[in-house]
Amino acid sequence: MHIIDMRSDTVTRPTNAMRQAMASAQVGDDVFGEDPTVNRLEEMAAEMTGKQAALFVTSGTMGNLVSQLAHCGRGDEMILGNQSHIFFYEQGGSAAVGGIHPRIVPNREDGTIDLKDLAAAIRPDNIHFPKSRLIVLENTHNRCFGSPIERQYIHEVAVIAHNNDLKLHIDGARIFNAAVALQTSVSDLIGDADSISFCLSKGLAAPAGSMVCGSKDFITRARRARKLLGGGMRQTGILAAAGIISLTKMVDRLSEDHANARAFALGLADMDGIFIDVDRVPTNLVFFSVKKKGLTASALAEKLDKEGVRVLPIPMDEERIRAVVHYEISPGDIQHALGIIKGVLDRV
Ligand SMILES: *Cc1c(COP(=O)(O)O)cnc(C)c1O
User: Fold this and answer.
1) Of 175, 225, 207, 202, nearest to 25 (Cα)?
2) pTM over 0.85
3) CATH number of this structure's domain 253-347, picked from the four choices 3.30.980.10, 3.40.50.720, 3.40.50.2300, 3.90.1150.10
C-alpha cells in the first residue's frame, strides 16, 4: 500500500543528496570545536539568520531549552503565548530543568499576542515579583494554523522587550516556511529578535538537528547549556552535512508545500462532514474539524490509517485534525488522499 504520511513534516526522510553528503562528510570532535562540517553549518545558519553565531543542537526542544537557559536564571519569568509549543509540548522543561517561571498570555488566531497583554505582563521591580527576563514568539505558529508572523509585529514586540530590559526569543521551528510565505529572508524577518531556534529535521528534511542563533555571548552560554543537557556530541559532521543540504537545497521548494497544502484544504472544504477555513492555511499545516455525528477526529484518523493516509488527531480535542504537507507529498498524493477521505466519510 502507498502510504501518504501527513502526520508531520518530521517524517521526511533524508534526500539522496543528504545521504551522499553524510557519507563523505569531513568530521572531528565537535565538543573540542573541531568538526569542520558542524562549524560550516553553524556559520551558514548565523549568516542566514543575521546573527553573530550559531549552535547545532539535537532537536527543536533542546534548541528552545538551551535558549531559555542562556537568557534566564532560576526564578526568572518568561512570557509566552498560551498556545505555544514550549508551553504545550516540551514537558515543561523550562520549569523542570531551568527553574524558569512561565507566564502565559493569550495567543490570537494568527499566532500573535496582543501587544497590550504583553506589555501588561512585564513585571515592575518589586521584591514580591519574579524578574521578567524573556518574551518568546513562535513563527510559524504551530497550534495557530501554521501562521507566519510578520516582521513589523516582531519589531514591535522587540521594542517592548528591549525597552524593559527583556530579551526576545523566536521559536522558529518552521521559520523558513514563514520567510517563504512572506516572501522575505529569515534575517530580515527576525532581525530584531535576540535569538532564534529552528529545525532542520522538519520541512527541510534533515534526519536530525536544529540550530540556535544569536549573539556570540549568548551562543557561548547556550553551548554550555547544551553540554549540561547531554547534547555535546562528537563527530556530528555526519548530521551537519545533511543540515547544509537543508539550508542550500530545501528552502526555496517550501512554496510547493504551501501550494499543495492549499489544494488539500480546498478539496476538504468541499466535503460533507468536514469543516475547514481555507483562508487559514497560510503555510504547510492544514487544520480541519470533523463535523459528523458519531465520528471523532481520532476515529476518522484510525479509519484513514487503514487506507494508507496518516493524519494527526490533536490531543485533548474531539474534532480537530492536523495534516502536514512536505516534500514527500506530491500533488498526486494530495488528490489521492482527498479521494480516500471522501470515500471513508461517505461510508460512515
Ligand atoms: C516541532 C516543534 C518544536 C520542537 O522540535 P523537536 O525537534 O520535535 O523537538 C518546537 N517548536 C515548534 C513550534 C515546533 O513545531
Assistant:
1) 207
2) yes
3) 3.90.1150.10
- Nearest-CA residue for atom 14 of ligand 1: 173
> What does the chain come to in residues?
348
Tell me how far the alpha carbon of residue 173 lies from the centroid of ligand 1, in angstroms: 5
6: its cell numbers: 501527513
The three cell numbers locating residue 62: 533542546
Q: How many angstroms does the Cα of residue 77 sit away from the middle of ligand 1?
A: 21
Distance CA 85, CA 81 (A): 9
Domain 14-249 sits in CATH 3.40.640.10: yes
With beta carbons less than 8 A apart as the criterion, state whether 216 and 15 touch: no
Q: What tens digit of pLDDT does each residue of 104-157 get?
A: 999 999 999 999 999 999 999 999 999 999 999 999 999 999 999 999 999 999
Residues contacting ligand 1 via CB (< 6 Å): 59-61, 64, 85, 138, 142, 171, 173, 199, 201, 210
> How far is ligand 1, taken at its centre, from the CA of residue 61, in Å?
6
What are the structural domain ranges in the chain? 14-249, 253-347
Each residue of 185-220: pLDDT tens digit?
Answer: 999 999 999 999 999 999 999 999 999 999 999 999
Distance CA 340, CA 348 (A): 13
